[in-house]
Amino acid sequence: MPTLDRIAPELQHMIFGGVDRRDIQNLRLTCKSLAEVGARYTFERLRLSFSTRSFYQLQQISKLPVKDFVRTLVYDIWETKEYNLEAFMDCIDFDEYPPLSVLESLPPKDASDRDWRMWRRCGVKSMSPPKTKRQSRKEWRRQRTLFLDQQSLRKMNYGQASLNTAIARLVNLEHIKFTSSAGYNSYDPYRDCEPDSPYGLPQIMSVLQAISTAETTLKSLELRSTNWRVFEIDEDQHQMMKRIVSSLQSFLLHIETNEERDEDEEASAEACAKLFGQGRPFDLLQSMPHLQVFRISIEAWNENARRVDLKHVVGQFCWPRLCKVSLDGLETTSEELLQFFQRHAETLRVVTLLNIQVEQESWPDILKYMRTALKLEGFVFCYSYGDHWCFDLASEIEAYVLKTLDFSFHELVKACQWLLEP
Asked: What is the DSSP string of 215-265?
């Protein structure tokens, strides 16, 4: 019976494609042939955090032959803050646990015992707050060490020189994702950004500057959990971003307007809507002629806060290849929304509308047009964060309610039921 290292390469890749990444790392330690096969799956996606150790690891990987396998770079731009031990202990909130992110990462019902053990180890234990003074002091020293380490990176222009050399060597890099763990991997009482903090803008611009210097052609860019101030950049940086995004096929923008600790959320949402009204984000989106997937989410939990208008996001522009779109947390009129669908009627296949503020009585007409004019394969509709309707039009047409609450919009329900009729 042939062993794993002696079967056909095609079968090896099929097996490695369905194996957990940690198991792949163990398999790579068994022999050289499996190490070469597993390198493609181990180094295809690199994670970079804002620490000197992570930057050093990126530099070392970029010098090895495995650098050719790197396709995606995920940059966690979270920064810790400087605080004293007394303030650290005062901010510990034991009622906060378990955090929502732990509950959201629950394994599926059919998960193996190993998956549950990993969830308990990586999810619950690592995110538990310190319970004694000794543990608090230890955690405070660790956080302060991390702060000083990040401070050294700030003095080095956020590691710009290191990023320039490393990204220039990653010749097959195609996808960039910016995210912020906000302390989810370790306890930090100061998860919210302070009003005078840069909101990760220096980290974002340092990577984009390295991308521009290396003349890397990106296919996708994701800005997750960022702040609207990311667009408050000078004209030279704006032009640089336009050159970088000109080749994008997929773009995700997730903006949170409730990050300010000492600023009223309504005022923050107002400033965000005003910034979009000035046209700079729309000017950036117009620079993506090859866009196929577009997802935008403006998150504001205050229902009274002003929202970003759809016309300030898409205007009258048409992306000739747009097939998937997700709009979340915007306001618009039925006329503007229908015009957007009309411009992309030939290409749109999947549409997601989440918490869109539009005239209530117009939803039946909007859904009717979507059924008759669009060739949809999938449709997700959510009027509010409590009522979530999903339609899978690619297979058997059906709808199901993820969260059942009092749904008073009878006309909308009738329209949804009519949409599902064969």
From this structure: T---SEEEEEEE-GGGG---HHHHHHHHHHHTT-SEEEEEEES---SSS-H
| Amino acid code (one letter) for 104 | E
For residue 293, give the 3-state DSSP assignment. Answer: strand
What is the four-CA torsion angle of 51, 57, 60, 64, rounded to 10 degrees?
Answer: -140
Measure the CA angle with vertex 84, ends 149 and 199; round to 5°: 55
Tell me the C-alpha distance between 175 and 420, whole Å.
37
Burial of 1 (C-beta count, 10 Å sphere; 0-12/13-18/19+) = exposed
Q: 253-285: per-residue pLDDT in tens?
A: 998 776 444 455 567 788 888 888 888 899 999
Q: Is 348 exposed, middle or buried (0-12, 13-18, 19+ CB in 10 A)?
A: buried
Beta strands in 236-377 (DSSP E): 250-256, 293-299, 308-309, 324-328, 330-331, 350-354
- How far apart are alpha carbons 54 and 60 in whole angstroms? 10
SS3 130: coil
Query: Could you tell me which of 121, 139, 119, 144 has the C-alpha nearest to residue 129?
Result: 139
Question: Rounded to two decimals, what is the model's pTM?
Answer: 0.78
Q: Which residue type does 354 have?
A: L
Match 């400087």 to its residue by tokens: 82
The residue whose two tokens read 């096929």 is 249
Strand partners, 252: 222, 295
Residues 6+ apart with CB under 8 A from 46: 58, 61, 70, 72, 73, 74
pLDDT at 126 over 60: no
Residue range 101-128: average pLDDT? 58
Number of H helices, E strands in the chain: 17, 13
| Residues in the chain, total | 422
Q: Are 360 and 413 in contact (CB under 8 A)?
A: no
φ and ψ at residue 22, rounded to 5 degrees: -65, -40
Q: Say whether pLDDT at 374 is over 80.
A: yes
d(CA 209, CA 196): 23
Report the DSSP pairing between strands 350-354 and 387-392. unpaired
* Tokens found for residue 250: 């997929």
Please check whether residue 326 is in contact with residue 297, taking contact to mean a CB–CB distance below 8 angstroms.
yes
- The mean of the pLDDT values for the chain is 76
- As beta bridge partners, residue 388 has 382
Residues 28, 42: Cα–Cα separation, whole Å: 9
- Cα(368)–Cα(419) distance, rounded to whole angstroms? 7
More confident residue, 408 or 75: 75
